[in-house]
User: What shape does this take?
Amino acid sequence: MMNHYEPAPLDEETISKLREYERQISREAGYPVVLIAYADQDQPASQ
Assistant: This one.
């Protein structure tokens, strides 16, 4: 069975955290890093 992934439905606070993680990782790595969040659409959403 193949999983089906869609962009994760993130709220603004979570997006802000991901952007900060990108900045931190990019600084440590010495090159730009982009984090991408996907959600497995075949799994029930947890509340």
User: Anything to note?
Assistant: The chain has one domain: 5-40.
